[in-house]
What does this fold into?
Amino acid sequence: MNAALRSLVIPAMLGVSTLLVACGGDSEDASSTPTASSTSTSKPSVNPAALKGAMVFKKTCATCHNADGKGMPDNGPNLHNNEFVKTNTDEQLFEYVVTGRVVEDGADMPPRGGFTEAILPDEDIRAVLAFIRTYEGNAYTAP
Ligand code: HEC
It folds into this structure.
């Protein structure tokens, strides 16, 4: 009985399968190299000023901007990836922190965070700004 099936080989599938094999090519080499291995050149691990700044931040800024710098409701805003920080130079940010900002319908940023120059001297402000810069580039996160 089944001997008859041998003669019914299915020739119809041959054409389809050959088309699918051709596309798998050798384009992978080019795309895998450039991004992964750019570690050693740009980042000087931890800026020492930023390390000091992390302590200054806890002492003089964290009350309003939160210990992690991510802000508090109705008080200091989130400083991570903050547009104001990103678009101002170190010198402009220094002036800003020294001067503060009065806000009509909300919380003020007090001059020097509300501290005297004896408690928060200029060099500490520069250190804390170096620290805040690390919020932009994931270079360093406070312990
Ligand atoms: C008493 C609370 C308080 C303290 C302390 C304080 N800030 Fe602020 N800070 C604010 C408030 C409120 C604002 C938002 C002001 C506004 O809306 O313009 C602000 C804004 C800022 C901004 C601008 C961010 C933006 O998006 O406009 C920076 C930068 C900043 N503070 C840095 C600091 C640093 C650095 C310290 C510590 C030396 C500090 N602040 C201490 C309350 C505080």
In short: Residues 51 and 97 are 19 Å apart (CA to CA).
